[in-house]
Design goal:
By secondary structure, this protein is an alpha/beta fold. The protein contains 14 helices and 13 strands. It binds glutamic acid.
Length: about 425
């Protein structure tokens, strides 16, 4: 008799939550796993989740406490790998789902990593630079128990950047008594970071869109593109689309939505926002409502913000041919089905935004060997890995007659569970 504990008592039972979304995605892949399906329950649990308290001294003399997490979903294929986000909506549920998607992403790209993710429940905009540094350092110290260059390697995610990675690297190094550049990726170039890492996620989104559009019989040049999110992922991807001759006709960030039928000058808009300007106040765009944004007619729609954006209701009305997921978990499983019925192709997050972790892998390898590659070498290897991975996913989707997402999950989960089976259970 199987007496496994059913589900996980520490995850809220909210059907809309990212973890529940992930569990539904696993259910879709299990019938395609053959004898490895015996191990599929492994995928529905996190190997390890650490919740930490992060007290910091505020500039005004008070002490504030923040909640932090690091989840290691699976370490069967190698050390944990995945970003750290600072956001007021971070929760144990979200971090667990994001760590599981990293397991799938790393395995889909055949990177020698398991999946992990971390986060702090905080709005970093409300902190001074000094407070942000103290928060980052205390968080790093607290999760120092389970991270390390050969254990689990954090990286940037929503609202974290190369400066935060530098503080994480320094804190970890101070605690172990040696400079350990390989403990995080996405570092500044001067500290063992990799050329091309900052742009890598956006570049990967561009490559995924270009290849898939080509297979559907249209070119990026001349196509109409809408991008949700204008940060490191959406912003860089938008610039690459424009450079390839596409028109970015709609953009949305935390300040609101904007449009320009003739195409937005995304390079100038990116610089304007980087200098503290509001996207909605940029010259040459018309502010539009949220409803108008989702009603824009495009060839390619790139959700590059947060989870749960392409909902069932939006999937029914969105007017596009191709969705390329720059964010993690932007499309709900119910929306996936509707898009599938409407013949709208979705390139899933676990492939489309894998450019970032792929160049993170290059950074980690370069740090270990203390030998650094040129930007051309990085971009060339990224291009090859992304194109190969996409081809394999398209082939699997044709073979199993499933969506690209389920196909990516089939490839990835087969790799993860094959490793699980070969290693066996200890004790
Ligand atoms: N946060 C990024 C992601 O979701 C990158 C992770 C990494 O480089 O480890 O894929």
């Amino acid at each position: 008799m199987n007496t496994s504990t059913p589900g996980l008592s520490y995850v809220p039972n909210n059907p809309q939550s990212p973890w529940q979304m992930y569990l539904q995605q696993v259910d879709r892949v299990t019938p395609h796993l053959g004898h490895l399906a015996r191990w599929s329950e492994t995928l529905k649990r996190c190997k390890r989740v650490l919740a930490v308290d992060i007290p910091i001294n505020k500039d005004d003399g008070t002490v504030a406490h923040y909640e932090g997490f690091r989840a290691q979903h699976n370490l069967s294929r190698g050390p944990g790998k995945g970003g750290v986000r600072f956001h007021p909506d971070v929760s144990i549920d979200e971090v667990m789902a994001l760590s599981a998607w990293m397991t799938v992403k790393n395995a889909a790209l055949n990177l020698p990593y398991g999946g992990a993710k971390g986060g702090v429940r905080v709005d970093p905009k409300l902190l001074t630079r000094g407070e942000l540094e103290r928060l980052t350092r205390r968080y790093t110290s607290e999760i120092g128990l389970i991270i390390g260059p050969d254990k689990d390697i954090p990286a940037p995610d929503v609202n974290t950047n190369d400066q935060i990675m530098a503080w994480m690297m320094d804190t970890y190094s101070m605690n172990v008594g040696a400079t350990a550049t390989g403990v995080v990726t996405g570092k500044p170039i001067a500290l063992g970071g990799s050329l091309g890492r900052r742009e890598a996620t956006g570049r990967g989104v561009y490559i995924a869109a270009r290849e898939t559009a080509r297979s559907l019989g249209f070119d990026i040049a001349g196509s109409r593109i809408v991008v949700q999110g204008f940060g490191n992922v959406g912003g860089i991807a938008a610039k690459l689309f424009k450079a390839a001759g596409a028109k970015i006709i709609g953009l949305q960030d935390a300040s609101g939505s904007v449009a320009n039928e003739g195409g937005i000058d995304v390079d100038a808009a990116f610089d304007f926002v980087a200098l503290g300007g509001k996207l909605t106040e940029f010259k040459g765009v018309t502010p539009i409502t949220e409803g108008e944004f989702w009603a824009l007619k495009s060839d390619i729609f790139v959700p590059a913000a947060l989870e749960n954006q392409l909902t069932e209701a939006r999937a029914k009305t969105i007017s596009t041919r191709l969705v390329v997921e720059g964010a993690n978990g932007p499309t709900t499983p119910a929306a996936d089905d509707i898009l599938h019925d409407r013949n709208i192709i979705v390139v899933p997050d676990v492939i489309a935004n894998a450019g970032g972790v792929t160049v993170s892998y290059f950074e980690w390898v370069q740090d270990f060997s203390s030998f650094f590659w040129t930007e051309a070498e990085i971009n060339d290897r990224l291009e090859r890995i992304m194109v190969e991975a996409l081809k394999a996913v398209v082939a699997a989707s044709e073979k199993h007659k499933v969506s690209l997402r389920t196909a990516a999950f089939i490839i990835a989960c087969t790799r993860v569970l094959a490793a699980r089976e070969l290693r066996g259970l200890y004790p």
